[in-house]
Specification:
Chain lengths: ~120, ~300
């Protein structure tokens, strides 16, 4: 159970719907642990600024998380959270373990364009 | 950049020192604002088990302990923001706190930013971070089920991590650069009696090997200079901490290692109105319970400072 202010994805159907109906999507899949909470916090901060990006999080331990776990770009990941960036439904970037605001912003700017 | 009203108290950091200072200052009606930093709860939340914190005879995980701190702090009305301070400027008798996204004015400041985990400082460490290299056994241990891993370090964290990781790994090798350990005897005994744990001392990690993920490490013996390559799937790094004082170096005096200097027997720094507590100014004890006590001292020193300022 994630305790964040970000919209959660709880089913595979929701993952598909989010990816189909949004051009730029960032999904962070993790737990309420020390490496994940900072990334969720960064997303909460950036959600207001990057209004052209859809931010979602997902509990790593639910069955629907298989979608993110099985993304080929995450095959070598061995650190939570798994954070995946999608453009038009395609993976454009993925990171493993803790990331700070600058690192997340660098990916958002590069893949989706700077904040509006 | 957004400007906000003048705060009474800004507390930088949300570990045991910062949250204890927040509890006391909130209880005194000072309405503190806690800037949590990058990792809310501080370094303690990566500890799988805290056995020495008074009041918890059955032991408690670092995460749960800090969750309780946080709930208690919230009960007294402290406010929280997940911001990291980049710089603080003194303006007459007040302070301008710059977080990069926000500028906050405050009459007083408590620095409780703690310490951050030291890295091995070898190029391959960053390359494999999250792909076999980790600083959090409780977060990532389960990825190493039935695999062989290294734990680097010789303090309590390293030894506790090694014992914890035997729940998952087939073999845990502790790599330590010295021929003695800082971990307390009780922790050492647990590790020594664990058949899954092996020891390599005095060795250091020279290089991490792998393609997409870690497959091994090159180690060097510090006494003989001998090197060896050993296979492993994971490397957990627990080699100590450095004080997080960089943002305050122009504001307060620090020692050569970056620890903020405080007056003996108090938490007053070289700058009136700025107080420091916990691991950011403690090169000796580095314990959660000491940090909490120090946080209480900072709150009381600050209250006295405000009282005197108001009487002027």
């Amino acid at each position: 159970m994630l305790n964040t202010n970000i919209k959660h994805i709880e089913t595979e159907q929701e993952v598909k719907e989010v990816l189909e109906s949004n051009e730029n999507v960032m999904i962070c899949c993790g737990r309420m642990g020390p490496m994940c909470v900072p990334v969720f916090g960064v997303m909460e901060d950036l959600e207001q600024i990057y209004q052209h990006v859809t931010f979602r999080d997902q509990d790593f331990d639910i069955p629907a998380a298989d979608f993110i776990r099985n993304v080929p770009e995450c095959a070598s990941f061995m650190g939570l959270p798994f954070t995946v960036y999608f453009k038009n439904g395609k993976v454009v970037a993925a990171t493993s373990s803790i990331q700070n605001k600058d690192q997340v912003m660098a990916i958002l700017d590069r893949e989706f364009g700077k904040q509006l | 950049m957004e400007n906000v009203d003048m705060e009474n108290v800004v507390i930088a950091g949300s570990g045991p020192a910062g949250l204890t200072a927040a509890i006391y200052t909130a209880r005194s009606g000072l309405n503190p604002l806690v800037l949590e930093g990058l990792v809310p709860g501080g370094q303690l939340i990566v500890s799988p088990e805290v056995e020495y914190y008074p009041g918890f005879p059955e032991s408690i995980s670092g995460m749960e302990l800090m969750d309780r701190f946080r709930k208690q702090t919230e009960q007294f009305g402290a406010r929280f923001k997940m911001e990291v301070i980049e710089k603080v400027k003194r303006v007459n008798d007040t302070f301008e706190v710059d977080t990069g996204t926000e500028r906050i004015e405050t009459g007083t400041l408590i620095i409780a930013t703690g310490a951050e985990a030291r890295r091995l400082d070898i190029p391959s460490e960053s390359k494999f971070y999250g792909k076999g290299v980790s600083g959090c056994a409780t977060c990532d241990g389960a990825f190493f089920r039935d695999k062989e891993i290294l734990v680097v370090g010789g303090g309590n964290t390293a030894i506790q991590d090694a014992v914890f990781l035997t729940r998952f790994a087939s073999k845990v090798t502790i790599v330590h650069r010295r021929d003695y350990f800082r971990a307390v005897p009780a922790e050492m005994e647990k590790a020594k009696s664990n058949p899954k744990i092996e020891w390599l001392i005095p060795w250091v990690v020279e290089e991490i090997i792998g393609d997409n993920t870690v497959t091994g490490a090159v180690l060097k013996n510090r006494e003989t200079g001998e090197t060896q390559q050993i296979p492993c799937s994971g490397i957990f790094v627990a080699i100590g901490h450095d004080p997080q004082s960089e943002a305050f170096k122009e504001l307060v005096e620090t020692d050569k290692n970056g620890f903020i200097l405080v007056e003996a027997g108090s938490t007053r720094t070289s700058t009136p109105g700025v107080f420091a507590c916990g691991d950011v100014c403690d090169p000796v004890y580095k314990q959660a319970v000491v940090a909490a006590g120090h946080g209480c001292m900072a709150a009381m020193d600050l209250e006295q400072y405000i009282y005197i300022q108001r009487r002027k």
